[in-house]
Amino acid sequence: MYQRINGSDWRNIWLMGDLHGCFALLMNRLRQLRFDPWADLLISVGDLIDRGPQSADCLGLLRCRWFRAVRGNHEQMALEALESGDMRLWQMNGGDWYVKGDARQRADVDRLLAHCRRLPLIIEVGMRESAACDRPRRLPGAGLSLAAAGRSPTGTMEPPSSE
To answer: What is the pTM of this model?
Structure first.
């Protein structure tokens, strides 16, 4: 599955990989970057869930208009585990949070995971202007990095300040 996004519709497009349930860490970093949910877009390149303490909250990002994601291997593992009923592989790779969650939370997570079935495997960002990608910024204490894609009519780009 494939999705094309018009990059000209957004002020900034941020790319993120391997969030792995670290929702609070992401929200803190987006505040530091002055992320504007009305003008900016965040694209996850997979693995929203597992390992961190807030996987359900990370799945909740799928409801946000400013968020897009491709299906990562952890989302795929979850879908396969729920379909087959064999949770062992998923649990060995961080899926314990689902099994330990209460029934109400699981019902909401099940709806969000069903949405993961429709996530694209490829997202293409089309832009009219030239584009450059800033170096990834690693968040302290986690394997989470964000990179910014910016555009300029002159073909040059000033990297965002690192604040």
So the answer is: 0.80
